[in-house]
């Protein structure tokens, strides 16, 4: 994780780097730091915590420079502290910012210490800066020193490097961690994500794995992993600098919850002709691939994994497509048996999740011939590594808690079920039903958002609680899991989800008045069974909040608070029933006074194992 931003320009880069860091805080916010090279010296400022602390430090004691590097950290090696904050400096000459993990740092550290380098931090990054300083003793340029250093590194990195003896040169390189070059007029910048650079440019070069770039004010040279000089295309971004503003909302998360009707419409847009989903919505050769596959294997993490769990029900129930799903970090080390004619489907908001990427590469290594990614980040690593792509068009999601990415993933998955299912047992009638329900979604989402005030009131029931249970059945069990994840990640209340039928096998022992039980109870074939499960909880004094179809909704009583949901078709109800759970966790977090958009210990983009 961590966010990097750096630049070389004819103007002072410090304000640009600070703004860039703020836009990268979703990648980590344990500490922030910035260094410039100016008048033959490195000037560095570092602060524990968020970028605003660093900003205050620099406002109180300004630094300026035309070349600089900056970093916002999500701690891996070494606790969050000022001395572990980047940039790291070697012998007052070289400074480095790093995103990723260096796996052989112990070995390198020992060798560097033997050669007289003194370490001042517990980070894996510090070996990189000392190694570059060491390689500069024999290399004829900063570029060649960095090339020599990265040849010794094992693991993942994106780097920005400056050196006092080359004040006109910024070196950038990446392997396994993302890095983009922003092309300005007479200036270049680098960042972990284009969002950091949108205030200064909309023209970007996406470095490929193994690339090393030498940036000067008037030149840019890129070498690939085989040390060949290469040209990489400049891509014009459509995103605007203010597309990541909070607008009228108090938090990004709330804004993103409210954007879901729009995001779903965008995701559906242009993918149908005469109400018929086009195979090529997944890529020009998608039809050929779909014709060949015999089963589906879904790989994802966190919230994206939950969307995959819903899809497994859909694939098997609606279309009789054999479908397996596994958490990516387990799949990658399990040595699974997988047939070459399986379609591996990865799901990821960021497209950079290290475990998901590694699981995809592992599936390919095991001989899988076809891959498809459902992703919200164009040009991300997973998009580049996959044969077929379905972009969710949710727009940038800044809140660490994933909301609109999840609902648009479900929309994309329903489209995939149509495309693949047609080749299996999906009937034309079911296909038409799915399509018409998909297009009804934005309106239904708007209706659910009207429950916001009622849900805010309910959230008070959680203010003094330390635990919560979430129950669901069928496709709504993963929705209960997603609700529990949302609550724990932003309100720090311990929450678990269970398939409601499983309660009596153990968790029922936890039920008392201190344990709120949130239940998603749409009108489907499992409702009667779910009602019995609700009774089991209520009879033991449990406090239930039940989201239920308005046409069936019973009245609330002492133990059971019913929230009436718009009546929707089964096929889309997992998407619709997600929204109140997002709102609930949001309001609980606000009540508890947590940092809603940047909850403790987490980061938005998990680019480490
Ligand atoms: C969601 O609220 C989480 N912050 C997290 O579980 C996330 O979904 C997970 O890290 C996977 O990320 P991805 O979708 O970018 O791959």
TrEMBL record:
Source domain of life: Bacteria
Gene Ontology terms: cellular component: cytosol
GO molecular function: carbohydrate derivative binding; glutamine-fructose-6-phosphate transaminase (isomerizing) activity
Keywords tagged on the record: Aminotransferase, Cytoplasm, Glutamine amidotransferase, Repeat, Transferase
Pfam families reported in the protein's UniProt record: GATase_6, SIS
CDD domains: GFAT (cd00714), SIS_GlmS_GlmD_1 (cd05008), SIS_GlmS_GlmD_2 (cd05009)
GO biological process, one term: protein N-linked glycosylation
Chief location category: cytoplasm
EC number(s) reported in the record: 2.6.1.16
Keyword Repeat tagged: yes
Segments forming domain SIS: 286-426, 458-599
Active site: 2, 604
Location of the Glutamine amidotransferase type-2 domain: 2-218
General function of this protein: Catalyzes the first step in hexosamine metabolism, converting fructose-6P into glucosamine-6P using glutamine as a nitrogen source.
Family matches, as NCBIfam families: glmS, PRK00331.1
Complexes and interactors: Homodimer.
Name of the molecule in the record: Glutamine--fructose-6-phosphate aminotransferase [isomerizing]
Protein's gene: glmS
